Amino acid sequence: MKRMVWLVSILALGIVIWPQAALYAAQRALLLWWEMVLPSLLPFAIASRLLMNTPVPHKLAQLLERPFQAMGCSGGAGMFVMGSLAGYPMGAQLGAQLAEETGDNEASEQLLTFVNNAGLLFLTGTLSAGMLGHPEWAWVMVVSHYGAALLGACIRRPMKRSTPPPTIRPQPWPQALNDAIGRSVLGLLTVGGVMVLFGVMIALLDTSGLLGGVLSLASPVVPPGILQPLLTGFLEMTQGAAGAAYAANNGLISKTAAMLMSSITAWGGCAVHCQAMAFTARAGLHLGRYIRAKLLQGVLAAGLTGLLLWILSFAGQWLGQYPFPPVGWWVAGVGLLGLCVWLVRKVRRQ
Predict the structure, then answer these.
(1) Which carries the bigger pLDDT value, residue 23 or residue 44?
(2) What is d(CA 235, CA 96) in angstroms, rounded to the nearest whole number?
(3) At what angle do helices 210-218 and 173-207 cross, to 10 degrees?
(4) Range with the lowest mean pLDDT among 7-11, 204-208, 257-261, 324-328?
(5) In Å, how far are 19, 209, 231, 252 from 212, measured between CA atoms?
(6) Would you say 53 and 235 are in contact if contact means Cβ atoms under 8 Å apart?
(7) What gap in Å lies between CA 305 and CA 255, rounded to an integer?
(8) 3-class SS string, 86-149
(9) Rounded distance between C-alpha atoms, residue 350 and residue 347, angstroms
(10) Which of 114, 119, 160, 342 has its CA at a distance of 20 to 30 angstroms from the CA of residue 251?
(11) 3-state secondary structure of 263
(12) Is the pLDDT of residue 323 over 50?
């Protein structure tokens, strides 16, 4: 509690000392949210919440449960599907709800390590098409993001027992529509507020010279065009990804920017973890295992993105410029992911 008091006091003092920097940072964060995040996520957020009122997610979870059990993720298929549809921090909310319903904090903490992920449309729309300007790379971002979460679950200790997903009770459709719109708008307003808060924090760190000092010290090892988006993304995911896109427009190789974006999105940022903590603290869950898992997911996502883009480039040289239909690349990416999971499981058994 005392640490939070000190942090909030320093933040308020920084805003008073550098009001112009704070105002400009808040304007930039709001503009990014208004032009990029809100239009790309709101329609799908409403549709995904309406979809959760149908048997489709449950049927899909049943279909995926056997592969999840083979990966050592028993009982995680339903939460993974719902978390991927809604995006951050739905997985954390479901994990906390599961702990409250079953009282099994150990299983809930294990599931939380791979079910709290970015939403599908954020990866395909906001990142691939919007920031990167490469909509044909959407399958790469999706497979690497969710694949890194599942690979991380395979690498860590597998779950030894199955846990039923939290209960989602269907609502009458008029009430479901009203609830979906209200929750989606409220959720995106929360995202906008978090972006403004952490955007101001990043601007104050930059204005005070602390961020510049870290960049100067690390510049002989890591180029500033890579390090600055990483530091920004460590605090706030969307602005870190936007920083990587800006670096790509100013000389950074697009594939390197895609790897940066993938790593930042898989990590999620301190802003996302603060939102997750709001749910998990109420249920008595500890986030230590979850934080370690997200760090591993960030590393794996960057590696998978680089590998998939290399395969895409190699195939383009031999087979022509994207001769497959888009579905072909999605199937190829999922097949490669399945091979990686199989290899990891085989090594673990030995």
Answers:
(1) 23
(2) 23
(3) 80
(4) 324-328
(5) 19, 5, 11, 19
(6) no
(7) 8
(8) HCCCHHHHHHHHHHHHHCCHHHHHHHHHHHCCCCHHHHHHHHHHHHHCCHHHHHHHHHHHHHHH
(9) 5
(10) 119
(11) helix
(12) no
- The span from the CA of 151 to the CA of 73, in Å, is 11
Separation CA 122–CA 146 (nearest Å)? 13
How confident is the model at residue 139, as a pLDDT? 84
Nearest to 232 by CA among 218, 220, 215: 215
169 Rama class: left (phi>0) / alpha (psi -120 to 50) / beta? beta
Please compute, for residue 31, the number of CA atoms within 13 A of its CA located in the half-sphere on the CB side.
Answer: 7
CA–CA separation, 40 vs 312, rounded Å? Answer: 26
Q: Is the dihedral of CA 278, 284, 285, 287 positive or negative?
A: positive
pTM of the shown model: 0.82
Q: Tokens for 156, please give them.
A: 């860590």
Cβ contact 131:280 at 8 Å: no
CB within 8 Å of 274: residues ≥ 6 apart: 194
Residue 296: per-residue pLDDT: 93
CA atoms within 13 A on the CB side of 20: 2
- Give burial (CB, 10 Å; 0-12/13-18/19+) of 6: exposed
Contacts 24+ apart (CB under 8 A), 322-331: 322/136, 326/136, 326/139, 329/139, 330/139, 330/142, 330/143
Distances (CA, A) of 69 to 94, 145, 158, 223, 242: 19, 20, 9, 42, 36
Cα distance from N-terminal residue to C-terminal residue, the chain: 46
Token duo for residue 90? 């739905």
Nearest alpha-carbon partner for 25 in 282, 168, 232: 232
Q: CA–CA distance from 256 to each of 133, 186, 241, 250 (Å)?
A: 14, 34, 12, 13
Under DSSP, the state recorded for 133 is S
Which sign does the torsion angle of CA 333, 337, 340, 346 carry? negative
Look-up: residue for tokens 């290899």?
343
